[in-house]
What we know:
By secondary structure, this protein is an alpha+beta fold. About 20% of the residues lie in helices and about 30% in strands. The strands form two sheets. It has a six-stranded mixed sheet. A hairpin with a 6-residue loop joins strand 4 and strand 5.
Amino acid sequence: xxxxxxxxxxxxxxxxxxxxxxxxxxxxxxxxxxxxxxxxxxxxxxxxxxxxxxxxxxxxxxxxxxxxxxxxxxxxxxxxxxxxxxxxxxxxxxxxxxxxxxxxxxxxxxxxxxxxxxxxxxxxxxxxxxxxxxxxxxxxxxxxxxxxxxxxxxxxxxxxxxxxxxxxxxxxxxxxxxxxxxxxxxxxxxxxxxxxxxxxxxxxxxxxxxxxxxxxxxxxxxxxxxxxxxxxxxxxxxxxxxxxxxxxxxxxxxxxxxxxxxxxxxxxxxxxxxxxxxxxxxxxxxxxxxxxxxxxxxxxxxxxxxxxxxxxxxxxxx
Length: 318
């Protein structure tokens, strides 16, 4: 009888233990980091079997609902560099991942939302060859050289300060009120990889090239106060002739003592699908890519543009 009872206790305990690898997923910082680790593993393999996905998972690519079975997450990639924001307040994460594979390079911006012990949403914005100022090798060089380390607790900005800094920067694109942006010095902005402001001196600024008349819309934020970072998922314009192309976009910020230090942007817009064609190509090496006639906010979709704000087609599965 004792043996039967003992066997039942062991069996019951086994049922209550979550599947290995899934048990650590939660809204704690450690739990969200575990979700990021599982995502990186899944993206590397092109296999989502190891992800604890919620029933009714929301999956999006480039601000549009997509079928995960045909998604870029199913494409195996060797990730050369990545950094992540952990947002415990909203139970979300953001991961910037850089792939320098010569045949198929990518830079990805991936948002995860966790609900209890499951991943409830996956949203990926991807750029690759032919997209706005894309250069994965340059993106890797700049990103890996930058300092996005943990900020001492007594020197951290609040969540509200980080979001306000991001909004001030993005608001300047519409009204041109750059005096309201908390500019820091030095500050370096990387756009797609090929666009880069600054030359490595103390007076480097993220100010050059910021246009006006572009409505940065549909903003959603992921915030990590421990590293002074906030990312905005948004559209570069409102998607109408007077408000910009509406191309899917992410703006990632590093803020130190209330001032902007780094800005990274990814814009899912084919280089050929905005007014001026190659406009902005001269941005590398500290040019002013956003202000020219070919800036994504001012561009118009050409006759051959894919449907939906310049979105490209999902990558072909191998």
